Amino acid sequence: MARGRLIVISGFSGAGKGTVVKRLVEKYNYSLSISATTREPREGEVDGRDYYFKTVDEFKSLIDYNGFIEWAQYVENYYGTPRKFVEEELAEGKDVILEIEVQGAMNIKSQYPDAMLIFITTKDIVTLKDRLVGRGSESADVVEKRIRRAAEEAETMPSYEYIIINDDLEACVDAVNSVVVADRCKKENQTEFLIDIKKQLEDYTR
Ligand code: 5GP
Question: Is the CB of 80 under 6 A from ligand 1?
């Protein structure tokens, strides 16, 4: 069976990528990796569903035991992608979504060259700030830090293969799925199929 693909989704904090990813998993049949983090749960977040919430010591021991395929520090906290789930899902041929920030995305691309890198953004920075402030879960100081961080993240945008504007949720979700489907159809991702169909034709015309 062909291995699954890693679909890395990054974007500015506040660009709505969490909602996009949730809807992608609901609407289409993707597997979603749940990250570990040392940040405090936001209201309504559930351990094991949104994140695995860890202490700094627990997180560091997972690093020591090679428990992550990548991890990074973002603003004031650690975030990491658990290795076991991802490897098992890929081996079962499932496409796995990782919703991670840019350092993690670059790290994944160097380890998994066939990973697809997708960047989700708002149409402008005013919309981004409105969404961050509207979320109400972050202090003004953290909002400012996240916007400054967005400026750094924008530098790595050209390293992504696809940049998708999240203006309308359903349109954005469908655009992400479309690029994944289109990518699967590329000839370089169909080498086994090409060999097989050629062989079938040879057998048939023999
Ligand atoms: P938040 O605190 O808003 O949930 O996430 C902050 C940032 O960390 C987001 O950009 C999110 O995509 C990223 N993030 C979440 N999980 C991981 C992870 O496992 N690895 C990395 N590198 N970044 C992550």
Answer: yes
